[in-house]
Specification:
Length: 311
């Protein structure tokens, strides 16, 4: 498949633009070193004309957040009959909506934290939910990379957080705060990757800064936990991946309480591929280099090209 023309799409207008560019540049570098004919482009108003002009054999989707993970670019590429890395339209739209995914997880009996959702578009700030006590984790309903996540400790902080968040988002989730250890589990194809424990060095939790700033967090691979908890986390990650209808790759985040009970937080359909990202670290641990990881991901998309040609 070497020599195939690959368009790496990155950037976009979401709050995760800079992370997307970092992922895209790493993917483009790896694809070029592997012998693919690589072109990069931004996801902006000129995207459709640009992608038609390039006419790639496949797109490496390096976008993050709304526009890139919510089914939008997936629908455009499906319409243009261009295969791409990552999950399809419906699965992407579902997985980025934290409220709907949590409802689905709860209905299927997956362990998740208690939550409530709030509409901020009406101009009236919501009161602290009576069903949830402080502290709370507040996050946008449709964002990734821990963008906009805040831990609220007091009533005053709740009010200020609602004022701040309402300037940029129309809906938020408030989740029960569970103190504990943070873990993440990647899926590549149908292969479950090693469990990683994340030790944040900034902000006291796996925040945006802890994810992407050099030294922001330490990844312990494999996580120093017993076999039963390891198997439980890996089973939940694979089950969530399949339940949401995801493909190619994903990464599921967990918090494990002091009592050892895992809580599924959310699923990322386009995990970051930056120098500080977890999924490449997990792959390297089992002998899959970054180049091999990127090659496998674009290979999945190119295989779908062959399937379309046959059908």
């Amino acid at each position: 498949m070497r020599g195939k023309k690959i368009a790496v799409v990155m950037g976009g207008a979401s709050s995760e633009r800079e992370v997307s560019i970092a992922t895209g540049n790493e993917a483009a570098r790896a694809l070029t070193s592997l012998g693919y004919d690589v072109q990069t482009l931004d996801y902006d108003a000129a995207f459709i004309d640009a992608i038609r002009s390039i006419a790639p054999d496949a797109v490496f989707n390096a976008l993050h957040g709304p526009g890139g993970e919510d089914g939008q670019i997936q629908a455009i590429l499906d319409f243009l009959n261009i295969p791409y890395t990552g999950s399809g339209v419906e699965a992407s739209a579902l997985a980025l909506d934290k409220h709907l995914t949590k409802k689905l997880f709860a209905a299927e009996g997956f362990p998740t934290v208690a939550w409530d959702v709030f509409d901020l578009s009406g101009g009236t700030l919501p009161l602290l939910p009576g069903t949830l006590g402080l502290p709370l984790v507040v996050k946008p309903r449709n964002e990734g990379s821990a963008a906009g996540v805040t831990i609220v400790q007091t009533h005053e902080e709740w009010t200020q957080t609602m004022i701040d968040v309402s300037k940029t988002h129309s809906e938020i989730l408030a989740e029960e705060y569970i103190p504990g250890r943070e873990f993440t589990v990647g899926i590549l194809g149908e292969e479950v990757l090693p469990v990683i424990e994340i030790l944040p060095n900034l902000d006291g939790f796996y925040s945006y800064a802890a994810k992407y700033e050099p030294g922001g967090s330490t990844h312990v691979i494999p996580a120093e936990i017993d076999e039963d908890l390891t198997a439980r986390l890996q089973m939940l990650a694979l089950s969530a991946h399949r339940l949401l209808g995801l493909r190619d790759y994903s990464r599921t985040d967990f918090i494990v309480s002091a009592e050892g009970r895992p809580h599924l937080l959310e699923v990322n359909t386009l995990p970051g591929l930056t120098p500080t990202s977890c999924l490449p670290d997990a792959c390297r641990f089992i002998g899959i280099s970054f180049e091999a990881l990127v090659d496998r991901l674009i290979g999945y998309a190119l295989e779908r090209t062959d399937l379309r040609a046959v059908s």
